[in-house]
Amino acid sequence: xxxxxxxxxxxxxxxxxxxxxxxxxxxxxxxxxxxxxxxxxxxxxxxxxxxxxxxxxxxxxxxxxxxxxxxxxxxxxxxxxxxxxxxxxxxxxxxxxxxxxxxxxxxxxxxxxxxxxxxxxxxxxxxxxxxxxxxxxxxxxxxxxxxxxxxxxxxxxxxxxxxxxxxxxxxxxxxxxxxxxxxxxxxxxxxxxxxxxxxxxxxxxxxxxxxxxxxxxxxxxxxxxxxxxxxxxxxxxxxxx
Length: 241
What we know:
Layout: E1 26-27, H1 31-39, H2 44-49, E2 53-55, E3 61-68, E4 71-79, E5 84-87, E6 104-108, H3 111-119, E7 125-127, H4 151-155, H5 157-160, E8 165-169, H6 174-187, E9 192-194, H7 209-216, H8 218-226, E10 229-230
Parallel strand pairs: 6-7, 6-8, 8-9
Antiparallel strand pairs: 1-2, 2-3, 3-4, 4-5, 9-10
């Protein structure tokens, strides 16, 4: 369980100024963006269910809508050449409503990886809203009010507390592995499992969920998730959350 924090330690998602799709000028996706996702094996149905939009007048910018209890709380924008900006997001997990009643959840490193999980049959998945750390910190965990880089976990405490099993599907590179470790430190290693991505060749592995989906297909992605390994098989270490 995540420990309780003082009232001013973390701001509730959605407590900022009310926003709507109209105020953000969000509209349907262009053929270019639909084609971009199709190349990555992500269907229009998955895009529609997750409320993926684009800003009117900006044909090459994807808008990932962040919602909590059905209410729009922000939007993260991504150009096709991977430039990011955001509006209204008070740090939260992407896809939060998909884990509202889940006992087992998956945490991915990016919105496109969360969408890829759905193509493999996993709805119970969220993504972190920001990038991975360069390395694992050698310091003690900060108190919730000072844990700025991971504030999205504390803001989503009521959802994460329900999970008895958490699968960490972060990227296979060094920052992704550091992110998995930092998440496990906060969530409690005894309830965390980590995904090892399939081999690409004799010398390297695929880096993330979308790479696996794109090159090996949904069955291979599903098998990778189902064969996640316990972070700490014999640990009774409690959650810090």
